[in-house]
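Is this the right way to post structure tokens for a design question? Let me know if I should format differently. Anyway, here goes:
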């Protein structure tokens, strides 16, 4: 633009009675935070796209309400001012930056005008990984409807289906192709004999991983060798596993890249899926099971791969804690909410990466009938574990899988009410997690005698199972606990007080507090000592209980 054109434009912008979503005035008399500048860049870029304008304007040196020129000293040096183009490109997706930065020296003072390009079709503009938008004069996160409105501009374009023109079969990992063949034959056993006669390109075409012999981004993601990720740069094909302790400190990590088909197994092998013990009603002895159902782990990782928004240039994360796993991927949750997916139990009408999802289905990685998420919930139900928690934001999906019983009442209700629907279990899960209930939900659960207490302090009730199985609420008699102590000493030759506490603690009545449990266990031990059945060969503080006469207890 010429100087006169810029002056005329400034006059036009100032003449507007109110700011619009694509024009913002700031005084910025001396300086302005770069982070705020970046947020406005993202917001104005996205709003320009939505209003079908080629660009938006951010103007420094003007009062936002009166549009009076007050002048700005922001980056007085021309070199510093125009270095903003590079600085902004470093913080935005696809390195989008200012189209131009104009300086005007008006009689009232200096004015700086930033010309901000509209977000490209189908790709919202982010700043430092976050998307911003405007509602009138307010700046905030780009709302979901606006985000999806921009995303839908891609029409039938599918990032995962794009051809990588410089790549060829040599850029794929031979071991990954072998595994892909095996998975394909497992998925389609009637084609097993034919698969063995196909060369690699024929097989990859049939599996819908390549397109007429040409390497796709999907092929790079799933089967590419460890150097092929450069073909999809700046997008990333990386799964990062992190092990954290109870204090949230990192203890171990793994970064697995292409081929993701093999990375899935590498990450799965890192997760400590140890045995979990839970004592069901009517017995003092625990059932053993894997902490996490293997299907749940693999399904969660595969969903992250299938539905990651690779245009956001981020990694897939799997974070392991002592008692839960957290899976996260970038991109909005297209179905809208998890309840809809569980209830409908059908394929999504829209998916982010249809070519990738189809290839993963053919390689037996995902199930397109839409039952994968529902299966995860049902596996947690079978273990009496909390339901998965989905945390959905505008550009991230996070899934939390808990690997233990957190509320014994919840577990007992599920154990003795196998006819409860999944919707019922989801409501019980809300109660155990102390999430608010609607009036209708409260009324429904009270009718089933599944909750007690007053809003908001509801708690799960065992009244519903008392008639089904009296053992469910039975308090074990003293001899049961004593026998358990004796069996433990017989098996392990001795027992510390800590051992005995851990053995009996969760088996004592639920209504007991910690002090009462401690006293009760002390009474059991004292009784055995007074009967001269066991003796302490340690100290008072560090006890070591053994049989008085081992010969009688071999």
């Amino acid at each position: 633009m010429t100087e006169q054109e810029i002056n005329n434009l400034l006059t036009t912008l100032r003449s507007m009675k109110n700011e619009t979503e694509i024009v913002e005035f700031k005084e910025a008399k001396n300086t302005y935070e770069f982070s705020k500048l970046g947020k406005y860049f993202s917001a104005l870029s996205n709003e320009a796209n939505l209003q079908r304008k080629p660009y938006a304007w951010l103007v420094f040196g003007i009062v936002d309400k009166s549009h009076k020129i007050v002048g700005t000293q922001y980056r007085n040096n021309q070199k510093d001012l125009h270095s903003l183009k590079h600085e902004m490109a470093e913080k935005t997706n696809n390195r989008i930056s200012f189209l131009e930065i104009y300086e005007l020296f008006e009689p009232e003072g200096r004015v700086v005008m930033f010309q901000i390009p509209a977000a490209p079709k189908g790709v919202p503009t982010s700043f430092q990984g976050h998307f911003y938008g405007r509602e009138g004069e307010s700046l905030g996160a780009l709302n979901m409807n606006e985000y999806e409105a921009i995303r839908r501009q891609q029409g039938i374009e599918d990032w995962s289906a794009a051809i990588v023109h410089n790549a060829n079969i040599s850029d794929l990992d031979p071991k990954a192709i072998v595994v892909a063949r095996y998975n394909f034959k497992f998925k389609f056993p009637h084609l097993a004999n034919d698969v063995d006669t196909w060369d690699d390109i024929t097989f990859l075409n049939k599996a819908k991983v390549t397109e007429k012999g040409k390497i796709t981004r999907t092929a790079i993601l799933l089967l590419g060798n460890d150097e092929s990720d450069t073909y999809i740069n700046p997008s990333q094909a990386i799964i990062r596993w992190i092990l954290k302790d109870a204090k949230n400190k990192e203890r171990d990590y793994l970064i697995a890249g292409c081929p993701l088909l093999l990375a899935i197994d590498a990450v799965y092998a890192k997760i400590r899926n140890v045995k979990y013990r839970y004592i069901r009603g009517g017995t003092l002895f625990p059932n053993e099971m894997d902490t996490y159902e293997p299907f749940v782990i693999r399904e969660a990782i595969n969903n992250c791969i299938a539905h990651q928004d690779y245009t956001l240039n981020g990694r897939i994360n799997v974070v392991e804690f002592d008692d839960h796993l957290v899976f996260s991927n970038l991109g909005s949750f297209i179905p809208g909410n998890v309840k809809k997916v569980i209830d409908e139990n059908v394929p999504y009408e829209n998916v982010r990466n249809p070519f990738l999802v189809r290839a993963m289905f053919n390689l037996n990685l995902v199930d397109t009938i839409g039952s994968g998420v529902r299966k995860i919930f049902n596996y947690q139900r079978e273990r009496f574990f909390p339901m998965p928690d989905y945390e959905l934001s505008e550009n991230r999906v996070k899934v939390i899988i808990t690997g233990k019983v957190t509320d014994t009442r919840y577990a007992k209700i599920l154990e003795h009410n196998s006819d409860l629907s999944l919707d019922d279990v989801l409501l019980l899960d809300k109660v155990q997690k102390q999430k608010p209930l609607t009036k209708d939900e409260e009324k429904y659960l009270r009718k089933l005698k599944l909750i007690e207490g007053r809003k908001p302090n509801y708690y799960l009730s065992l009244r519903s199972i008392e008639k089904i199985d009296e053992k469910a609420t039975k308090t074990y008699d003293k001899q049961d606990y004593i026998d358990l102590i004796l069996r433990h000493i017989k098996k392990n030759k001795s027992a510390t007080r800590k051992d005995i506490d851990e053995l009996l603690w969760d088996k004592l009545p639920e209504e007991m507090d910690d002090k009462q449990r401690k006293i009760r266990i002390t009474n059991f031990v004292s009784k055995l000592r007074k009967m001269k059945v066991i003796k302490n060969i340690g100290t008072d503080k560090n006890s070591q209980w053994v049989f008085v006469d081992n010969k009688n207890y071999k």
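Format looks fine. Someone answered above. Worth noting: The longest strand covers residues 109-117. The mean pLDDT is 87.
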